[in-house]
Amino acid sequence: MKVLNVNAVLDPVTGGGTAERTVQISRALIQAGTDCSIMTTDLGLTEKVLSSLDDIDLIAFKCLIKRFYIPFVSYFRIKRLVRDFDIVHIMGHWTVLNALVYIAARSLGKPYVVCPAGALPIFGRSKIIKKVYNLLIGKNLIQNAAAWIAITDDEKPQFLPYKIDEASIVVIPNGINPADFPSGGENKFRKEIAVNSAPFMLFLGRLNPIKGPDLLLEAFIRGKDKWPEWHLVYAGPDGGLLDSLRKTATKNDLINRVHFIGYVGGPKKSSAYHAADCLVIPSRQEAMSIVVLESGISGTPVVLTDQCGFDQVEHVGGGKVCPATSDGIYSSLQEIVNNSKNREHMGEKLKEYVENNYTWAVVIGKYVDLYNRLVD
User: Fold this and answer.
1) Which range has the worst mean pLDDT, 41-50, 119-128, 237-246, 302-311?
2) Which range marks the domain in which residue 221 is found?
3) Using an 8 Å Cβ cutoff, are 200 and 179 in contact?
């Protein structure tokens, strides 16, 4: 069986969790004995990124317009390429590449599955463009799929405006490869970001409104005098909020306790998780966050909002789930900050839960079973 995974951006800086997920699924499929390739654009595919993907067959087109991820490729070439695969897996939603692959798959009678990973709601900028996209092709792309994949049960209602019955949706969660997150380098990381031995909470993701870094900063400001020894570390690329976050931190005399260190990946990201005393995911909207699993496999407890689709974190004792408000985040942080023994216990519980349920060795079989059913 030959599988084609489609995602317009593979660069983890620009593409975030969806890019990470595409790469991890592809690697897991290859390790499971499935022939798998990725179709994408060359946006952000530096030599460093390409070297990390040398074990995966890439079909990368030149990105003509970066903001909208428009590929420089003819429909007929895409159709010729799609013809060689047994099944197509389309990631995300709002891209021209997805639309072209969809048209090609339909014309060839190839089964394709969609995994929007939380992208279906119209949120953020370019709302008018997204409405036009859905009107012209987006809704048909979703409706005509052979299967629909949600990352969590909470994501299922996002398919309803596209007239997809919730009972038809398959839930396959994100996965994690434990070997990618070894301990070591924590002290070096702490020195590099100038927190040294002080406790710190970690935000890892793009600094844009949907991820809620402003909500976290508001909560941290509220608790700054109650937690005088604590620091806050933002690790991630600017998504439009970096300047305002810095100004707010400076205005509240926190510039020495709030650190903006930019994107981190590879061993440095692993060191960040292991060094952090807790991870905070203050998202206003998100499907199941990969960083929850990464933090969990590192034994670090998590505070996340109820918009992340992963309330199991609190159910298993691995952290706290709260409303997506600064007040809600502050209240949960209070419980985490004030009890170091409880933090350690939460980290152990979350690690155990992730190891038993969310490694790719466990998750990838669900994809293979689905693909086999559709191809047969």
Assistant:
1) 119-128
2) 179-357
3) no
